[in-house]
Amino acid sequence: MFATPTAVPDTHGKFGPYGGQFVPETLMPALEELIAAYDEAKNDPDFIAEFNHLLKTYVGRPSPLTYAKRLSEKLGGAQIYLKREDLNHTGAHKINNALGQALLVKRMGKQRVVAETGAGQHGVGSATACAMLGLECIVYMGEVDIARQQPNVYRMKLLGAEVRPVSSGSRTLK
Question: What's the predicted TM-score (pTM) here?
């Protein structure tokens, strides 16, 4: 018998018989605290209003659409628009999620964000959100990526983040 997957997860985060989580037991209390805080925050009009306000006034959203006239012509006349996430504060879409997570961290009464990054854009987004909200930020990054992405490492440090090198495994995200 085949199960029909659903488009929406159940209350346990599973899509029919699929999904779930594998988390070390020692992390479960922290994960359960995070889930409860998120479930509360996503239904709080004040939290949502603050997040939307910061997305508009700090990040620069909604990001504009740019009509790509020549690309549209080259591809047979389809009307192609580019969503300009590169115009967001920090130059990437990573700030959107990082800002929401940092707001949730602050709401939970925590004082530190721990993140990981490969090329550095997520680290820059996390460091930026933490700097704006007065949170400590620690970013783990592979040694190889640190050497390749010095401009982003510099930006993270400039924003007050501590960048910790990962020297085991492949030492790179890719």
Answer: 0.85
CA distances from 137 to 91, 149, 167 (A): 19, 18, 20
Pairing of strands 136-142, 112-117: parallel
SS3 track for 147-167: HHCHHHHHHHHHCCCEEEEEC
DSSP assignment of 63-93? PPEEE-HHHHHHTTS---EEE-GGGSTTSST
Pairing mode, strands 81-83 and 65-67: antiparallel
Quote the distance between the C-alpha of residue 20 and its chain's center. Answer: 21
What sign does the dihedral 25-30-35-39 (CA atoms) show?
Answer: positive
Half-sphere exposure of 93 (CA within 13 A, CB side): 6
Q: Are strands 14-15 and 18-19 parallel, antiparallel or unpaired?
A: antiparallel
pLDDT digits (tens, 9 = 90+) for 38-65: 999 999 999 999 999 999 999 999 999 9
Pairing of strands 18-19, 65-67: unpaired
CA atoms 98, 104, 106, 111: torsion sign: negative
Residue 106's nearest CA partner among 61, 137, 71 is: 137
Q: Give the confidence band of 2 by pLDDT, cuts at 50, 70, 90.
A: low
